[in-house]
Structure formats: C-alpha cells, structure tokens
Amino acid sequence: MYVIHKVISLGGGTLGWVDLWRGILLYNVLDEVPVVQVIQLPMLMPGNKAGLGVCPWNIRDIACGDGLIKLVEVETYERPVDDETAYHDDMLVVYDSDLLAEQPVRDNVGWRIITWYRMTSWNYWRKECMHHDEEISVDHSRHQIGDGGGELLALKNLSASFPVLSLNCHCDDTVYLLRNLKSDTQKIWLVTVDLKMKQLINLAPFSIGGYFSPAYPCQLSKYLKGTLASAGSRS
Asked: Which is it for strands 68-80 and 60-65: parallel, antiparallel or unpaired?
C-alpha cells in the first residue's frame, strides 16, 4: 500500500503521487482512459533501513523540473575505528579469547548525501552524486559554525536532516537541509549546499520552536508582487 507524501507535476497533465519510501504513481488526468504507471524509488541507504515505515521527510525529498525527476537522501552513519574488512587478511591463528562476543568499537559519527535522477521514459535511475560530510568545503571566514565556546566545528559534528531539493532541480544542484549540533538539539541552522561544487553556500540560524513539520517549497508567480502592491494601494 502506498502512502502519499507529496504530489509533483510532470507536465502535459501528468501528476505523480509520491511515496518517499516506495515509489511514484504516475497518472495523466487528461487521458480518456487513464493508466497508472509505477516508478520504484532506489533502495534506501543502509543506515536508513531501520527507519522504514516512519516519517521519511527527515531523510528524503523528491522534486521534478522540465520532465526530470530527482531524489535526494541523507544518511547518518557510524564508521568503525578499525578496518573490519581486513580483519582476517594476515591472521594464521585465532584464539578462543579473540572470539568473545564483543561489539566492534565504532565512533566518529558522520553523514553522507546522495542524489538520483531519471526521466519518466527511462527504465532506470542514474546516480548523480554521493558526498560524505568531509567532502563539502566550508569557508569559516564567512560561515561561522560554532559550539558557543569559540571553537569552529566541522560539518560532521552536525546532524543533517530534512533535505529539500531546489524547484529548479533540472538545472540546479542546490539542496537545503536542517542541521543541529549533536550535543545540543536547540542550536539549528538552515544550510544551503551546492552538491556539484561540494560547497556550503549559506547558513542561517533557525528555530523550530517545538514541533516541526516538513517544509513544502513552492514557486510564486512573478505577477504576485504587482498584485500585492496594487491591493495595498487600494487599501
């Protein structure tokens, strides 16, 4: 069963009902005999699979522009202290004491972000980019990310959530995220990242003031400004 999280317009009368966990139901409202087409979404990143069925807005978003569909996903993950994949490479003997059930030591929690895109006529998704936190550059002379004690922090020290794609996603690699200090959930920033340039473009303090619902971007008509101005003059 699909749970509809948002609706996107793909042009020509075609709408897409999006389940951010599963896929997109395409439906042309102008067809005399409409047929529903299903586009499955790429698999979840490993660190997000445990949250399947919960609200997906904190990790995923979809946008459409000029017939191109784009998906963004962020993942928080832990990195092992040691290279576990090479554990047995140079071992000839394993002692009983080495086989005690111990949890591997893991720290340095970070995050990464991935984007996929496709046209509705394709039968595949193409990965556009995947970046880890340390790959995104920050100009600390312009953007001060601190802990309040004068120390500048790396992006890996911030939790990333609620990604929102640009409405011009067909020609724009900008994504907006909410980020907060892992040690203090009350210090939150609205962050703008250019994924193509792998660069933090802008950040601003943001207060959710308690409950926070997902953000829904929208485009305002260029005629709106004039309409509001004329309405103001009449009042």
From this structure: antiparallel
**DSSP character string of 31-72:** -SS---EEEEPPPPPGGGGGGTTS-GGGTEEEEEETTEEEEE
Most confident of 15-29, 100-114, 136-150: 15-29
Cα(61)–Cα(72) distance, integer angstroms: 5
**Closest to 61 in 3D by CA, of 100, 129, 125, 115:** 115
Q: What string of DSSP letters covers 149-212?
A: SS-B--GGGEEEEEEEE-TTTTT--EEEEEEEETTEEEEEEEEEEETTTTEEEEEEEE---S--
- pLDDT, one tens digit per residue, over 194-206 is 999 999 888 887 7
Q: How far apart are CA 122 and CA 95, in angstroms?
A: 53
Chain centroid to CA 73: how far?
4
Asked whether the predicted pLDDT for residue 50 surpasses 70, the reply is yes
Domain ranges for the chain, please list them.
55-80+106-234
The set of long-range contacts for 24-33, using a CB threshold of 8 Å and a minimum separation of 24, is 24/62, 24/69, 26/120
Measure the CA–CA gap between 157 and 182, rounded to whole angstroms.
Answer: 7
Label residue 156 left, alpha or beta by phi (over 0 means left) and psi (-120 to 50 means alpha). Answer: alpha
How many whole angstroms separate alpha carbon 76 and alpha carbon 181?
13
